[in-house]
Amino acid sequence: MGADLAGSRELQDEIPTSRYMPYTRHVTDSIISTREGDLITVLKLGGRSNTGADYATQMRWVQDLNTLLRGLASEASDHLALWSHVVRRRVTEYQQADYTNPFCAEFDRKYRNLFTADSLMLNELYLTVAWRANPEKMLSLLSKFEREPRAVNQDRMTRNVRAVEKVQKALLISLKRYDAELLGVYERTAAGEVVTNELRESWKKQGGEEPTYTYSSSAEFLSYLVNGEWLLQPVTRGHLADTIPQNRVLFPRWGEVGEIRTASRSRYFGMVEIFDYEDRTEPGHLNVFLEAPFEGVLSQSFSVLSTAAAMAFMKRHKGQLEDSNDASETQVAEIAYAMDRLVAGEYVMGQHHATILVYGDTPNEARDGTERAASMFRDVGIVPKVVTLAIEAAFWAQLPANWKYRPRPAAITSLNFLSFSSLHNFLMGKPAGNPWGPAVTLFKTKGDTPLYFNFHYTDTDVDAEGVRTSAHTIITGASGEGKTALVGALMTQAEKFNPTVVAFDKDRGMEILIRAMGGKYFPLVIGEPTCWNPFQLEPTPRNMEFLRAFLIQLCRGAPKPGEPGKYNHDVTQHDEDQISRAMQTVMIEISDKRLRNMTRLLENLPETNRYSEDAQAHPSVKSRLLKWTVGHENGWAFDNPTDDLDLSRFRIYGFDYTDFLDHPEIRTPVMMYLMHRTEGMKDGRRFMRFFDEFWKPVQDEMFSKWAKDGLKTDRKKNAFNVFVTQEPSDALESTIAKTIIQQCATQVFLPNVKATREEYTEGFKLTNAEFDLVQSMPEGSRQFVVKQGANCAKARFLLGPEFVPELAVLSGSPDRSELLQEIIADVGDDPKDWLPVFVRRVTQPEKQK
Description:
Rossmann fold; alpha+beta; ATP-binding; plasmid; nucleotide-binding; 4 domains
C-alpha cells in the first residue's frame, strides 16, 4: 500500500513536506529532475469538447490517443509513465470592459455579478510525462548505495533528456487538437507582466529593457497540488522540493479529512479512490467530474508495462480464473482474446491508479463532497472507496513520478486508461485575441464553466486581433424561448467595441433597446411617408448602378407566387434603355437635388411603349412606375420631397419592417434601398447588421448575388450579419436563405420542439449527435447550443429577478413600444429621461393605477 509513512501525525512529530516530494531542479526550461534521476515534463491542455460528439466519434478519438501512446511506448515502455490531472476550481473571471452608454454599463455591471459570486468553475487539464531513469527496481535501489561515476550519470541524464524532448515534440504535434501547451520557465516583470516576444520588441524600440524575474509554470502546477492554491514559483538555487511547499498539510490519525493551512485560512479535503469498475469502459467514463458541484482534483497515473511484463500478468490472471471454481468459460476466453490483442499491438498495458481529492471550506463540507463524489462515480459503474488510513499516501501520489505512494496500482489497458482520461472538456471559447479583441460576452456551460462567446471564429491558439475573418451568425429558436432577449444581450455586450449597428426588426422587438442605446429607430408603416427619395443620392457610379436596378425592379412588379425569379412584368432591353436615359436626365442634368424625384423621372419617360402593340401584356415603363409617384398607391415609399435617411448622425439604427414583410411588391424595393444604404456604411469600421426573420426580406432572387458573393466580402470590410429566425423550416425552403446559412461561421440553436432531424442535419449540417443535443433542451430552459466549425457547446442564458428592468428593454413588443411613445411624448427622447419612467411603468404597473 505505497511507502511506509512512518512517524506520528501529531504536530510535534510532523515530518517536513519536502520529504514527500521528489523534485530537485529544472534540467531544461521544460524538464524537471527528481532525486532518483527521473524526469518529468508538464503539458497543460484545453481539452477536446465531446459535447455533440457521438459515441463512434469519441471512440475514434480514444483510438487516436491509443495509437499515440502505443507509438511512445514502443520505443521506451520501461521508462514511460503518464500522470493526468483535472483541476476543477472556482474562478471569478469576467473581463473588464468600458461602456459609454449608461444602459449597457448597468447591464454589464449586473451581469458581471452572475460570474463573480463563486458560481463559475474552471476545468484545467494537465498531462505529465514521467520518465524513469532506472526502470529496473533493483538498479534503482542499488544506485542509492553505489555512487556512479559522474560521467556515466551525466551521459544517462543527457540521453534521457533527449528522449523526453522527443516525447514532448510528439505530444505537442499529436495533441494540437487538445490545445496542448508545454509548461516551463518564463519571466515576469516587477509589475507582474509576463514577458513575451512582443514585449521585448517594444522594449527594444524604446531603447531599454526592464528587470525581469524567472518563474516556473511547471512548478506552479505542482505547487497547486501540494498547497491547494495557485502561487508563483520563482526559479531559485534551492531544490524544488524545498521551495514548492508553502502551506502546511495536515493529515488525520484515524479520520478521512485532511487540512491545508495557509497564512489566512484552512482548506479541508477528503479523497476517493477508484477501487474497481465494470469490464466495459467508455470514452469520457469519468466526465462526471467535469460537472462536479465542488472543487477538487482528479489524478490518474499510468506506468507503461513492457509486453513481457504485461503478458506475464495476464497469464497469471488467466491461471487464477482457470483455477477458481466460479470462473465462466466466457471470462477465460476474454482473457485469451485480450492476450492476442496485446501481442498484436492493439494496446499496451500499464499500472494505473486514480483518486479524486475534494475540497471544502469546513470538515463537514469536505466529507459531504467526498460522499457526493463517490455517489457520482457509482452512477457510472465505478466502485469508489473513501480513503481513510491511506489518505496521506493518496495525497502524495497525486504528484507525478511519486511512484512509491500510489495506492493499489492495478494493471489496465491503454484503452481503459484513455477512456478514464479522455482529455475531454467543455468548450471554453476564446477570451482574448479575437478579431475585435476580447470576447463579446460570457455564458455558463452545463458544467458551470465559462464559455466566451464570439461572433468571429478563429483558432484558440492564434492571436487574431485585427485579422478580418468571417463572423456571420445565425440564431434560431422557437417563440418564447428567449431569443429576442439573447440577441438583445449580445447587441448590448458588443457595444464595448463601439460598432456601427443596423437592425432590421420585426414586431418592434428591438426598438426599446436601440433607443436606450442612443440609436435611431424607424417604424416603417405601409401608407405612411418614409421620407426617402433615392433620386437625391449623389450620382456616383455605385448609386447610379443601384438606381438602375432599383427602377427595373419597380417595373417588374411583384414576384409570381411559386415561380422563383418570375415577376408580373418582364423588363426588356428597350425598357432598360428608357430607364437609363431618364435616369441620366434627372440625376446628371438636374444639379439641384431638391428637384430630383420619381415624378420628375416620369416626366422624362414616353407615355406608351412603341415596341409593343399589346399595352396590356407589356405596359410602358411610365405606366408601371406611376403607382410609385406621390398621390398614387405606393407614392409614400420613395417619392418624397427630401431624403431624410441620414446614416451619419447615429451609430445605431433600427428599421421595423413587419408591416411589409408579407407584401413582396413593397418589401423587395424597400429592402433594396435599405441594403444599398447600409452597405455603404461598410468602410472598414466595425459593422454589425441584424436581420429578424431574415429569410423573408431576402427571399427574392435579386438578393441571390448578395447572398453568394456579398457575404464573402464582408469580412474584408470588417463587417458581419446576424440572421435570426424562429421558423427554420421556412428559412430552409428558401434557396437564398440556405446559401446564407452555409456562410455562417457561428450557429446558435435555442429549444425548438418542432425541430426535425432532416432540417437540422441537412439544412444546418449538424451531426445526428448535435441534433440530439438541440432536441434534448427542455422548453423554457434558457439553454442554447453554439456551434463553430467542429466545436459545439451547450450553454444557458438565464437572467434572474434582478434583471426584470433590463429584460423589459432587451425584449420589446408592440404594446411596450406604444407605451414608450407615450412616455417620450411627455418627457422627451433622451434615454436618461424616459428610461427610468418606462422601467417603472412596466415593472410596477399596479402603482400606475
